[in-house]
Amino acid sequence: MRGHHLIAACVALFLALGLSFRVHSQESAPPPPAPNSSDLDNDTVFRVNVDMVQLNVAVTDKKGNYVTSLRPSDFEIVEDTITQKLATFEEGNQEPIMLLNSSQQVSAPSPSDSSVVDSGPGTAPASKQINSSGANVFILFDTSNYMYRGFVFAQDAISDFVRSLDPSSKIAFYSYSRDVARDALLTADRSQVLRGVRTTVAGADAALYNALLLVLRDAGQYTGRKVIVVFSNGPDNASMVPPEGVGELAQSEGIPIYMISTRETNKDPMSTAVFERMSSSTGGQAYFAKNWKEQEQAFESVRDDLSHLYALSYYPQPNPNRGWRTITVKLVGEKAKNFHIRTRNGYRPRPTGFSPDTPADTALAR
């Protein structure tokens, strides 16, 4: 129940700030009512659109080196206890491989099957194909008063990171203090993003988790590989939402969070623990840099990670679990003994009948 309350708090904040939601149509019928025991006794079947769950998977050996050239047959995905079939496979920035056609997605439950098939966040509608390589990278830059010292050096590190990303990637750039600014919407135009970086100015208090919540909402509008890279120079001291709720939302949306922080955050053990937990649970990584050189190295590490990720997806098999669904990604055969996998560990299906609308300017974002 704690997870439900955290997600509900995040959604309530969206609504309080005027962020709109729209009903997700399912043919011409209204959304089905929530099941109860009498419904299940009568073998009633509740159907919603089955979406494609997307996973970013890093595979490394015992020395931490990236493992390349793996094949779809090397991976096994289990949701709860149900083995899944890979629908698409992509390595790095290569073109994705389509492994299932539309007729092979998910077999419809029989009339005697009382399972509930839910669409979930972190998924792309089955009608949308992933047909381009490269990641959508959302950069979130701390411009609070924690950043007064070395502000220009931080801008330089982010600019170098933007230039170094694969040309096939698209980038969006946000900055935050107490409020959030969409300085550059998702684009392949590097010059537009760099202008956004250079026009940022240092602000006041830091509302990191508020900002992450909005970036997650924006990123959720896009299909394909998505990651968030956060550069933070200090702890959060102004957010209205808890980090646990934001972290679980990122897990459910399937968006890895990479945290690059400095010694200012290391002075706050609670923030350090939150950053590590949030990045680990979403399949990203946390970096704590003692100086500007280490921050540059952290950005280089993120770039290398993005270029070596495997992108896997599957259409969930019928699953009666409407709560948290655990995802386990394994390597089969001898490879399972020698390699380590890093990815998100699950998701919570989105409530039936609702999906986010197009991002709109609010009091939170300018």
Summarize the structure.
The protein is α/β, with parallel strands linked by helices and 366 residues long. 29% of the residues lie in helices and 25% in strands. It has 10 helices and 20 strands.
Please describe the topology of this protein.
Blueprint (H helix, E strand, L loop, with lengths): L1 H15 L4 E3 L13 H5 L4 E2 L4 E9 L14 E5 L2 E3 L1 E6 L5 E2 L17 E2 L5 E2 L11 E7 L8 H14 L5 E7 L3 E8 L2 H9 L9 H12 L6 E7 L10 H11 L3 E6 H4 L2 H14 L3 E4 L2 H17 L1 E5 L10 E7 L3 H4 L1 E3 L3 E2 L6 E3 L10
Parallel strand pairs: 2-8, 10-11, 10-13, 13-14, 14-15
Antiparallel strand pairs: 1-20, 3-9, 3-16, 3-18, 4-5, 4-17, 6-7, 6-16, 11-12, 17-19
Helix pairs in contact: 1-6, 3-4, 3-9, 5-6, 6-8
Structure description:
The chain has 366 residues and is α/β, with parallel strands linked by helices. It has 2 domains: 2-25 and 49-100 and 117-129 and 309-356, no CATH class; 136-306, Rossmann fold, CATH 3.40.50.410. Helices cover 29% and strands 25% of the residues. It has 10 helices and 20 strands. The chain has helices at residues 2-16, 37-41, 151-164, 190-198, 208-219, 243-253, 263-266, 269-282, 292-308, 335-338, and strands spanning 21-23, 46-47, 52-60, 75-79, 82-84, 86-91, 97-98, 116-117, 123-124, 136-142, 170-176, 180-187, 226-232, 257-262, 286-289, 310-314, 325-331, 340-342, 346-347, 354-356. The strands form 5 sheets. Strands 3, 6, 7, 9, 16 and 18 form a 6-stranded antiparallel beta sheet that branches. Helix 3 packs parallel to helix 9. The radius of gyration is 21 Å and the shape is globular. It starts with a helix and ends in a 10-residue tail after the last strand.
